[in-house]
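Retry 2 of 3 after timeout on previous attempt. Resubmitting structure tokens to design endpoint.
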């Protein structure tokens, strides 16, 4: 999701939180409901269960829009996390306290194949090489945001840089990084 879409969705949530804007909510519902349903069905929820969970998530969005903080996560991350948690809660309720050891949501991810490890190692080295070509200030901000998981506000507070400067430097760094990776024949899709 690009920066403009993130800002647009954040503005819609704000309109819902402040004004109970039904048009903004409708736009959010139309965009996210089918995506949430698809996500839940990929997590082995049945159609009815997926639809029920989506309804719960959208009710939460309507009632608790004021709790969403765009500095902490994107709206999609927030909504998908709520959906995942509701799905787990529903599974727990259905099993009356006993969990199925084979429940896909509760199983650890399968270890990556050896080929994937080699490919990921190669990709990691390419990215490290590209990062080394960026100015130190930009690399520092990228590390804080993506390796340490700090929000832009936290980075701003830690570095003393204005929030807008943090955001623009990270955006600039990504532009340069993308150009370097494309120049090297890596498009990030493989």
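Retry 2 succeeded. Sequence:
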């Amino acid at each position: 999701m690009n920066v403009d879409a993130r800002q647009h969705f954040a503005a819609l949530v704000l309109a819902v939180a402040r004004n109970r804007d039904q048009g903004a909510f409708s736009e959010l519902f139309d965009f996210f409901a089918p995506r949430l349903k698809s996500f839940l069905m990929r997590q082995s929820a049945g159609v009815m269960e997926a639809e029920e969970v989506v309804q719960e998530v959208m009710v939460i969005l309507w009632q608790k829009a004021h709790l969403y903080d765009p500095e902490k996560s994107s709206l999609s991350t927030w909504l998908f996390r709520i959906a995942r948690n509701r799905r787990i809660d529903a599974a727990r309720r259905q099993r009356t306290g006993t969990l199925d050891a084979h429940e896909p949501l509760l199983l650890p991810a399968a270890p990556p194949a050896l080929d994937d490890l080699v490919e990921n190692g190669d990709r990691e080295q390419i990215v490290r090489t590209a990062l080394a070509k960026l100015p130190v200030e930009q690399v520092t901000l990228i590390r804080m945001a993506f390796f340490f998981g700090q929000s832009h506000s936290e980075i701003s507070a830690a570095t003393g840089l204005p929030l807008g400067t943090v955001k623009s430097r990270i955006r600039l760094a990504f532009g340069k990084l993308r150009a370097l990776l494309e120049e090297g024949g890596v498009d990030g899709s493989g």
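Attempt log closed. The chain has two domains: 3-94, 114-183.
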